[in-house]
Amino acid sequence: MKPEKLINVDNLSGKRILITSGPTRGYLDAVRYISNKSTGKLGATIAIEALNRGSFVTFVYGTGSITPDVTLLDKDCDSRLTFIEIETVDELLATLQGKLKDKSFDVIVHAMAVLDYTPAKCTNGKITSNNDKLTVTLVKTSKIIKLIRKSWPDAFLVSFKLEVGLSKDELVEKAYASLIENSADLVVANNLNDIAGDKHRAYLINSNKKIVSRCETRQDISNKLMDIISKQLMPVKV
Q: Maximum distance among all alpha carbons in the chain?
């Protein structure tokens, strides 16, 4: 079934949106890596919603991630979608600083689960499995969202904050703190305990620390997120 299509009822038609989505990997050797549980489902749903509202979408996704199903899109939507696959944090950095450096975006939705730590080195070949223990040193990765804000200072920036086992108030506090730290315009706050199957509870929090929307599913998040962005991009009446 195709997602419900909205016909030019907002200000997203023709807008250029960058969406990052899915997991990243950090390699230990030629065959082993560390990653995270991100599936990319939310990012893909957001991309489809943006396309259905007339936007041009650049979709940067991690290897193994779910991507927008082009068979669910009209041909016109398909022509407005650009895929870029990355695997590691370094590849993501290279994409942002190279391939996309001179591109202009009105909106950036940074939903990708970027590793906070990655192996300090990648061993050539395959690490032997004969040892009883293996010690791995992890090093902190670059803060990608800060690079994004520096590279596109005028874009409407949406960040994401995932926590585990926090109360609503604790989640809102942490999410808002991350919004301020990263100079984002809106943060999507969610709790791993509230994500299962079709359920995906989230709070959309603005720069005034106001919960502008509570969502219960991925489609709900996508709809309300695009509604909020559309209002933010509304031309100022003189």
A: 72
